[in-house]
Design a protein that fits this description.
455 residues; alpha/beta; flat; single chain
Length: 455
């Protein structure tokens, strides 16, 4: 029963995640074995959402820890235990009640024992080695819990074949609805072959987890680098279809290269002429973004074909898709407006951190949406009979998903139509923007490549 409930929960959570975020993308999931003992170590910038992302990447049942305060409610505690969550007594929570208990290193012996037991049974476990959800743009220093669990499972419990796999969760905007998420799986570590101690293993896990996460000194550096990376990753010689966009993986990879350059500049490791070259590229990119903002267009539309035949094909295609898709989108909006609005309102009430709105909104939605589905379907059953109720229920999830995607497409369609009008009126402006953007992309790529080769 618990296994079935776990699968059902993750199927529902996957839908909720894709309703909140525009896309959740995965890289390297082939590195996660579907059999044998497995310990996932995951960065923790966004509370419960991180566990959901890791669970979707793993595609197998996970045992993981959750703060003990979540278990205060008996119903919540029963549900959490059923889906594999074990309570973790955090020092900062314990200190408010019993300072002596907070200082006791054995306070989480039961939680660690539960994780070792799962590994001993050949199952998968998840741990957040930072210890708490971390509302800063970089990894916190890793605690030794993951290393101690892994080495204890091997040396004390005789677990063989244990793999530790780092999973990095990178948010485009972790508190931004309809933004994107990249879940990146790093290089596995074979515990049987590891000869070091707890500290050495913790250092190695930190290195591997750092490699699959974005890490910035502060929010200002994060904003600067991500802005540049977003522009550079989206530049192409041809315009993308409306439903397509630069993969978030490309943006993350570009951001890592850009931040590596920024760090070398901050450390004084580059000559003045090279630093000035970088600054010049940055200034030109900022100027381009501002110009596009004033015009109300996107830079990835600068390659747009403004000929009348192309515009006619675009208009006919979008009008047909709008005519065909609008009824289903309206149906989705009618049936979901109230539960979605309530989830957003309740999820954002009284929040104190950036991480709370996402988790609260999704958790509240996981309760409200099924409740509304049951009430609405029951009403249809009463008024029209069982077959109509069955059809109605089957339409709910697809119509909501389509409404969200359709709304995004309409927004992009309006922006592209505006770009067409601007460039149609001033072809020289389009040529200037396109040439400048492509030149900046090529210069940035050349610069990054030369620095990488230079070490």
């Amino acid at each position: 029963m618990s296994a079935a409930l776990y699968r059902l929960f993750y199927h529902i959570a996957a839908v909720a995640m894709r309703w909140y975020y525009r896309a959740v993308e995965f890289e390297g999931t082939e590195r996660i074995p579907q059999r044998g003992p497995l310990l996932l170590v995951v960065n923790h910038p966004n509370e419960l959402i991180d566990a959901l992302c890791a669970g979707l990447a793993a595609k197998r049942r996970l045992t993981f820890t959750g703060k003990a305060t979540l278990f205060a409610n008996p119903l919540a505690a029963r549900f959490l235990r059923t889906i594999g969550v074990v309570p973790l007594r955090r020092a900062k929570d314990e200190a408010a009640v019993d300072p002596a208990a907070a200082a006791d290193p054995r306070r989480n012996a039961e939680a660690f024992a539960a994780l070792r037991e799962a590994l001993g049974a050949g199952e998968a476990a998840l741990i957040f080695p930072e210890g708490i959800s971390w509302d800063t743009p970089h990894l916190a220093p890793l605690r030794t819990g993951a290393a101690r669990i892994a080495l204890s499972a091997r040396d004390d419990a005789g677990v063989r074949g244990l793999r530790i796999i780092p999973v990095g969760i990178n948010y485009e905007r972790k508190d931004g609805a309809r933004s994107r998420v990249l879940v990146e799986v790093g290089e596995p570590l074979d515990v049987d072959a590891f000869a070091g101690d707890v500290d050495a293993l913790t250092d190695e896990l930190s290195r591997r987890l750092w490699a699959v996460t974005l890490n910035f000194d502060d929010e200002a550096a994060a904003g600067e680098v991500l802005d540049v990376a977003t522009v550079l990753a989206s530049v192409t010689d041809t315009v993308r279809p409306l439903g397509d966009e630069a993969p978030i993986a490309a943006m993350v990879a570009t951001a890592r290269r850009a931040d590596a350059i920024r760090r070398r500049i901050a450390a004084g490791a580059l000559p003045p002429e090279t630093v000035e070259r970088v600054r010049r590229v940055q200034r030109r990119l900022v100027a381009l973004r501002r110009a596009a903002g004033r015009l109300g267009i996107r830079l990835d539309d600068v390659a747009l074909d403004t000929s009348l035949p192309s515009a006619s094909r675009f208009a006919v295609r979008e009008l047909v898709l709008t005519a065909l898709g609008a009824p289903l989108a309206v149906w989705g909006r009618i049936n979901h407006w109230l539960p979605f609005a309530l989830a957003r309102r309740l999820g954002t009430a009284g929040v104190t951190t950036r991480t709370e709105p996402v988790t609260r909104t999704i958790v509240v939605g996981l309760v409200l949406v099924p409740l509304f589905y049951a009430l609405q379907t029951g009403l249809v059953w009463r008024l029209a009979g069982g077959w109509w109720a069955l059809g109605y229920a089957a339409s709910l999830v697809p119509s909501a998903s389509w409404d969200l995607a359709f709304t995004e497409r309409l927004r992009r369609m309006r922006i592209r139509a505006r770009a067409w009008a601007v460039f149609r009126e001033d072809p020289a402006l389009q040529t200037k923007l396109r040439d400048e953007l492509l030149a900046l992309r090529d210069e940035a790529r050349s610069f990054a490549t030369s620095l990488e080769h230079a070490g």
